[in-house]
Amino acid sequence: MPVFSPRRFQMAHLPVERDSNLPVRTFTALERTAKGVLFGCRMCGNCILQETAFICPMTCAKGLRNGFCGEATAERCVVDASRPCTWRLIFERSERMGRMDKLLEVNAPINGAQAGHSAWLPFIKFWRERGQPVLTDLLANRDKFWREWDALCYGFRQPDWWQSDADYHPPAYNTAISRLELELQQKPFIVTAEIEPPGDSATDDLQKKCQLLNKYVISVNFSDNAFATSRMSSLACCVHCLEAGGEAVLQMQARDRSRNGILSDVIGASALGVRNILCLGGDYHNKTPQVFPCQPEQFDIDAVQMLWMLRRLRDEGRMADGREIENRPRYFLGAAGAPFTLKAEYSALRMEKKVNAGAQFIQTQMVFDLEAFNTWMAACDKRGLLDKAAFLAGVYPLRSAEEAHALAAEPGVTIPEEIIQRMEAAFVRDSHGCAGACEHQEVEGRLIAVELMHQLREMPGVRGVHLMVGGQESVVPVLLEEAGW
Ligand code: SF4
User: Fold this and answer.
1) Which atom of ligand 1 is nearest to the CA of 40?
2) What's phi and psi for 192, nearest 5 deg?
3) 38, 55, 194, 277: which has the fewest Cβ within 10 Å?
4) pLDDT tens digit string along 412-427?
């Protein structure tokens, strides 16, 4: 167990190509041992310990370098219940040290050529070449020394091909790129929805669902292998939606994708006319309904890095490796909001990171707990995010008391006791009817959803609701009719 970090989840990286120089190999072995004992170091080759309150972020079970995931809980890591969330510890220690602002910088993904090699030797070389700070300033002028030290570390950890920071980068265009963006510019409140992609290659049902929802909502999302279960790709569904005359939102999960794969997918999506992309981290594989064998490394980059990469590609024409392209893809970028994970202040900081990186609209996790949601929105407002991105609140109509209990146990979802009790009362009413009936529960679930929709519409900063219906798309028109919208 390392002294300053949680136990690492994955082994340290090995170099793709071994150092030929024996003294370098010896030094690297010593560095690996020392940093392993102290920090659980995985030899990522680009050390960001100074930014993460000296807890190694690579001990995170997902290997995330820019904050906790949407499934984080205060109790345990969602991947491995025997360990705490590394990022919760980083946030808590940063807060105690008064270094929360350090967490805003968008950290680069790992450079495979550096992983497994010493991080100290290239740092010392970089320092010598730069010539600042000089050690004597540590006594003569401490402020100057630490200012220059910070600049030195920043220069080292932000390679030329990444070049990120902790600042807000507004989109570099003036005219709306997508219909969804235009509607958000012109209307105070909108409704969007989600279609679950088919589990096979049949498209009849998908087309019918697209035609149905196009009449009722501004845009339709297609989930991307939700719960880490393979289905028809979000991109293929988006193309069917466009053919049906609808406005599609491509969901793009970081899980199981490399940065190269993501870039080629979004360039292809743009070429096919898809103009909205929702950047997500993705559920871990152990959440699949059945047990599948899965690959050990599931994350090359995280959602924040994806946003940074896609915004740069669109606004600066730069690929992730620094190459420039001539014809830039065009898309309106979105991100997920997780109001019910860790403390609202932590979650809002992570939200700011996503907005700074490029998120223009935010789709939140399903909202049942209005009080907690309000607290999170206030924390986002305090960070000035409500003017920079359009917040759409997720609404889900519960179908049964059993589902309410199951969802309440999911990390990232909070359902107040009062709602659970209402669903249970409906279950009792159903039990007195025909065997297997759940009419009262479905009606009650819709009633709760409609109440939430009305209350969310009145909440400052909420620009719309996103209806998540778990494959029951025909319920969307019913909900809107019952809401009187
Ligand atoms: S950030 Fe990278 S180099 Fe630093 S301790 Fe963690 S794995 Fe090692």
Assistant:
1) 5
2) -125, 170
3) 38
4) 899 999 999 999 999 8
**Atom 6 of ligand 1: nearest residue by CA position:** 56
Residue 245 token pair: 């005359």
Is 58's C-beta closer than 6 angstroms to any atom of ligand 1? yes
Q: Which atom of ligand 1 approaches the CA of 13 most closely?
A: 7
Does 64 contact ligand 1 (Cβ within 6 A)? Answer: no
What pLDDT score was predicted for residue 293?
Answer: 61
Q: Could you give the CA distance from residue 183 to residue 467 in angstroms, rounded to a whole number?
A: 17
Secondary structure (3-state) at 177: coil
pLDDT number for residue 6: 86
* pLDDT of res. 70: 87
Residue type, 222: F
Q: What stretches in the chain show pLDDT beneath 70?
A: 286-297, 433-437
Number of CB atoms found within 10 A of residue 253's CB: 24
Query: What pLDDT score was predicted for residue 435?
Result: 52
Domains and CATH numbers, the chain: 22-104+112-157 (no CATH), 179-483 (3.20.20.220)
Q: What is the pLDDT of residue 71?
A: 84
Whether ligand 1 lies within 6 angstroms of the CB of 47 is answered as yes
Dist. CA 439 → ligand 1 center (Å): 54
Of 247, 238, 189, 191, the closest CA to residue 467 belongs to 191
Please give the model's pTM, rounded to 2 decimal places: 0.94
Whether ligand 1 lies within 6 angstroms of the CB of 157 is answered as no
Which pLDDT does position 433 carry in this prediction? Answer: 65
- 56 CB near ligand 1 (under 6 Å): yes
Q: How far apart are the first and last CA of the chain?
A: 56
Whether the CB-CB separation of 6 and 59 falls below 8 Å is answered with yes
Ligand 1: residue whose CA is nearest its atom 5:
41
Q: Whose CA is nearest to atom 3 of ligand 1?
A: 47
pLDDT of the residue at 98? 94
The protein residue whose alpha carbon is closest to atom 8 in ligand 1 is: 41
